[in-house]
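Design request, C-alpha cells follow.
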C-alpha cells in the first residue's frame, strides 16, 4: 500500500536567475529540486506530487508578487486543514537593512 502524507503543504522557492545578472545563483534551483524529490519520495516524506500540496517558484517565476501570492496560497491550505504541516523553503540572496535590522529575501525582480 502506498503511503501518502496528505496533510503536507510546501512552498519551495529558488531564485537562481535574477533580473540583475550579478545576483544570479544557479545552484539554488538545484537545491530546491532536490528538496522536492525528498518531499515526494514515498519512502521519505510522501507528500502528494500535485499543485494542491506542493508549489515551486524559480528563476523568472520567483517574483515578489508570485512569492506573496504563494505565501497566501500556503496560508489558505494550512488554514483549511487542521492537521496541516507547512514548509517554506527559500534559496537565494537576502539583504540586511542595517538601520532597522530587518532582513529581506531577494526575489527575481529585485
Amino acid at each position: 500500500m502506498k503511503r501518502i502524507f496528505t496533510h503536507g503543504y510546501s512552498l519551495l522557492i529558488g531564485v537562481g536567475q535574477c533580473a540583475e545578472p550579478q545576483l544570479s545563483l544557479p545552484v539554488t534551483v538545484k537545491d530546491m529540486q532536490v528538496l522536492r524529490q525528498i518531499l515526494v519520495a514515498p519512502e521519505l516524506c510522501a507528500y502528494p506530487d500535485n499543485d494542491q500540496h506542493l508549489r515551486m517558484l524559480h528563476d523568472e517565476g520567483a517574483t515578489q508578487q508570485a512569492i506573496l501570492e504563494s505565501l497566501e496560497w500556503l496560508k489558505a491550505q494550512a488554514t483549511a486543514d487542521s492537521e496541516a504541516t507547512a514548509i517554506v523553503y527559500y534559496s537565494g540572496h537576502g539583504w540586511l537593512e542595517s538601520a532597522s535590522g530587518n532582513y529581506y529575501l531577494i526575489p527575481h525582480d529585485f
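Comment from the thread starter after seeing the answer: thanks! Residues 8-105 form one domain.
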